[in-house]
Specification:
Low-confidence stretches of chain A: none
Mean pLDDT of chain A: 95
Radius of gyration of chain A: 25 Å
Number of helices of chain A: 16
CATH class of the largest domain in chain A: Alpha Beta
Shape of chain A: elongated
Strand order of the largest sheet of chain A: 3-2-1-8-7-6-5-4
Strand content of chain A: 15-25%
Largest sheet of chain A: 8 strands, parallel
Oligomer: homotrimer
CATH architecture of the largest domain in chain A: Alpha-Beta Barrel
Structural class of chain A: alpha/beta
Number of strands of chain A: 18
Chain lengths: 433, 433, 433
């Protein structure tokens, strides 16, 4: 199904507590979040009146949402989706959520004009999702907002809601609901781990690859957007990046961010790098090669090349291979290296393919070439990859994402131009249209 | 959905052949299993009148079930769920299963009073599950047992039953069935591999991670208990443990056991260790550090630390990192180590969080600290982890499991007190309530 | 459900462009594919009038399908399933596909007599599958072909069709469709990656393990055949083999082939090897041992054995283990080695089990023994594996596959006899019946 909301991609889902006890201004964190701009500002900002806020502070939190958004919402450069309280097993919590919704959405309070939708946590099966949808419909009607105008996003935190995602394609569009308002499917791994009763020796969260796949698949099938849950270890930037790379290979391009630092990382992660680089598989370890004067050098000790008569001996870990000449060595190395294209490389390739298509060709070979140095030996390698229409479209995703970002986030234009250069940005906005 | 059966957790599912040919007493194995106690006794004992028993011995097996359980059932310290014959593709087998059910469940035979339910193998789609449920209803009615009083557990051994698990949440509770009797969802990987027609070069079973995830998810969504299938290589204790750790990270906390030795391993596996310990990631290999006088020493040769001027060079595998001082070294090591908390540690942390909550705090930092020695260099490391209500609840699972075990298995009280000390056991029974 | 089509297994799904511009004969590639025989000929040949053929050549492609198949179809040694155009989101494309179907299936054109079915790409949810099925029904009716006589296979290239696979078991057999015609479920990972909007740094395809599991599961539940998508890097034979091994462990025994070279690899891959061999786990790396005069030698440097007093020190990677004698050393090595049985080994074991069953035994031990040499030390190792009926059946899959191949592919008889010897082939055709 087509994605119907303004944003086709969400890189970042940044939560802020709505009310913190013991501060002069309990809305201090929200107030500072509301003023983030550029790479520090998320695609979706989530004033969090649920888990990030103590239960006894949530009525105050609802009021803070109104106060801060009515003041800062108009200038905020991205979407705003407050999270309210909800629980599939507690009518009490659902009723509280309904009251907060009604209050926050009252146009006289001046906030709803800047709010794009709401986030509903702890949903259960599809009937539970419909209850939240119905409350939103009642709120919209009561306040003369258009029916379906408020987006609804859910946090998937139990097996029942994981299963419910499979039904969205058939449930959305039924005349007795307004589930077309659905926007993001977000994983909540802490509570999911609790519900699934999973145990790990160290207490760290399980990786839940199947949950993330199923979320991404449901987003694809129902025209929604998949977002992964929080990465707790804020200190561990490398780990956060690895998780995002893993998510992206599953089609889950968005992730929760807990700090502006994480927002910056997550805003950049799905965008191609400014400069391309080569990787080598060093006996199971994927290592970046170092560029020195146009030569890509391997500096580790897991791979070595020795001259031997006319040929070479290539050693990778404990495996030795004899090769007769430079050509054979290049062939062996080709199996070990791969290239990470830059934004510029991708735009180049797309332009090249588009020109070829215009000229009536259905498929062309794209060449990646480099000089690789291992120890004292330098080898020229070169690889062709066939691009046809399907390859072109599959590889287009980072560009489409970039275009969505550029169109929707003028506050990031300077950062993007600095990262990629004005020229690359301009060409990236043209290609594929 | 809430779990409605007496046991909320099942660690062990131990099968015994019901009738072995060529023995003086064909029920010898059952008779010895019935007398297991303590850690050797499983949470669920399954007299197995299906695959473990030769087809021509199964009528005798049904009679042995009656004989042995009527004699030993009252004193057996855990639940008893015989497995009868069943097959989605064979009405003949299903009819035989029905006759065995009717006979075993006859109160005049004196066994059903000690039987908690039955295990139905080789089920197909949900309509096939309903056939087994209906037979149980007829048997209950015929013998004046309460409708729905006999639990039903199934072995998932084909794609159709894997898919059927997704429907349980909507099917359980329909007026024309008694599927509320469902208790365990058990994987049967040998027959599943046959049905899926999978091939491995060595003939060992594929790992089937998606099946195990889906079983665990269905158990969560429908208030049931997920149990993994048999681990054939009885000699390979290490492999059995690794499989259980992997299962636990998926929320599948129970596993099949083929011998009393496996029962002991599986009864202990999901419980926290008696003493905590540190792990280090030695270039991809997770290794336990050795404690010596309060210092945690790494003894391998994949990680080394050399002094270098004022600072150090840390080598992990082939990666070298220079650090300026002890603090930077500690930061680098923090990325490599993790701590496996003991039962006592977990109880401590939970008590601490409960006290903080009482005092009005929503989140507190838990500190893990140690002195780590690599070669001759000793470094103090320390890490804080934020605990909020959600963390607390997600990490509570091993304690809830322990409490379920303690409440239901008085025969294991001595073993548990010996393992953890009386004091820790007592506090573990108090915390979280 | 039972598999109802002539082929119970498909190893190879080989596509050929139907019309290539700029050649004298635009059907040249089809013409050469049609004349493949033996191991170079696939189980299923797919003249591809979709992605492999430029959009403006597809009407000519449809005509080429008719021309080439009417000429060569009768002699082609395997099944023929042309792929037509289709798209869940484009009525225009679906209409074009319908017109091509109607034309190709016209008996007066002389091709349909040799065509077994059609491949429908880019299907969406189950209602979309039904549209294609309905067109086939209309075509069959119009041309007086038996209703349901044309097989239908689909390419799963989006989340919606991945989900649709779960419904097949309940949808097939409904009176208002002819979905019993379904034959293969094929993954199309390039377009799937596009639809899921996945990104990888190098642009290579994500592995999509869950998709492949779900395809295999649906095939099991609905009596169909699971086939994996294309492996683009034609040069990388090793990678293609690894992918097939991974697929086979998921029950996905068929794979797309892009060249006759890939067809040969994929035709052989799921068949047991002609000679068995031992593997050793060399610190995480699975390595083949070299046979020398009946002794299996490890030649790498990750594992070593040193004599030490009466016993030995076994070093694996960085782990040292002291053992007291040959027996203990053998025990340690048993944990590291595994055996890949040959076709002859499997047939032997099955015959042995069948004889034991005849003699009234339900389970027997199968022994695998070898002399292993590490450095200068030779050790005899021996392992028993229990075989019962379930083991027997689960391990029977490669034999059943072989029998299906032998029955359906007389053109491969010579190759198979050369590979395995006449005697082994004969016995493999007898066993298990």
């Amino acid at each position: 199904m087509e994605r119907k909301h303004a944003r086709k991609f969400v890189r970042t889902f940044f939560t802020s507590p709505t009310a913190v006890e013991g501060e002069d201004d309990s809305a201090k964190m929200m107030r500072s979040a509301a003023q983030l701009r550029g790479m520090q500002a998320p695609d979706v900002w989530v004033p969090d009146n649920e888990d990030a806020t103590a239960p006894n502070m949530r009525d105050e939190g609802a009021q803070n949402i109104i106060d801060v958004i009515s003041e800062h919402g108009e200038d905020f450069p991205a979407e705003i989706h407050p999270r309210i309280v909800w629980h599939r097993d507690s009518p009490d919590t659902r009723h509280q959520g309904f009251k907060h919704l009604m209050e926050i959405a009252d146009p006289e309070n001046g906030a709803i004009q800047h709010i794009d939708g709401f986030v509903i946590p702890e949903v259960g099966d599809i009937d539970d999702w419909k209850k939240a949808d119905e409350f939103l419909t009642i709120v919209e009607n009561e306040h003369d907002l258009g029916e379906g105008s408020l987006a609804m996003s859910v946090i998937v935190e139990c097996g029942a809601s994981e299963l419910a995602m499979e039904e969205l394609r058939t449930e959305i569009g039924r005349p007795s609901n307004n589930l077309e308002r659905l926007f993001m499917l977000v994983n909540g791994e802490v509570d999911y781990t609790k519900s699934m009763r999973a145990i790990t020796p160290t207490g760290e969260l399980p990786p839940w690859p199947e949950l993330r796949h199923n979320t991404s698949r449901a987003a694809d099938a129902a025209g929604l957007i998949a977002v992964d849950g929080p990465y707790d270890d804020i200190r561990d930037v490398e780990g956060y990046r690895e998780r995002m790379t893993d998510n992206q290979a599953k089609g889950q391009l968005g992730i929760w961010s807990l700090t502006p630092g994480q927002v910056v990382e997550a805003n950049k992660s799905p965008l191609p790098p400014a400069a391309g680089y080569w990787l080598i598989d060093a006996a199971g370890d994927e290592v970046e090669l170092d560029e020195e004067d146009g030569v890509w050098a391997y500096k580790g000790d897991r791979i070595s090349v020795e001259e031997s008569g006319d040929g070479y001996v290539l050693t990778v870990g404990t495996d030795e291979t004899e090769v007769a000449d430079d050509d054979e060595l290049a062939q062996e190395l080709l199996d070990l290296v791969s290239y990470v294209p830059s934004m510029n490389d991708i735009v180049d390739s797309m332009e090249e393919f588009e020109a070829a298509k215009e000229a009536g060709k259905g498929a062309i070979a794209m060449t990646q070439a480099a000089t690789v140095r291992i120890g004292d030996v330098e080898v020229d390698i070169s690889r062709d990859r066939m691009w046809d229409e399907a390859t072109y479209q599959a590889l287009q995703t980072p560009i489409t994402l970039f275009q969505d970002v550029y169109d929707n986030r003028p506050d990031q234009h300077d950062d993007l131009a600095e990262l990629y250069s004005e020229d690359v940005v301009e060409r990236a906005m043209e290609v594929g249209n």
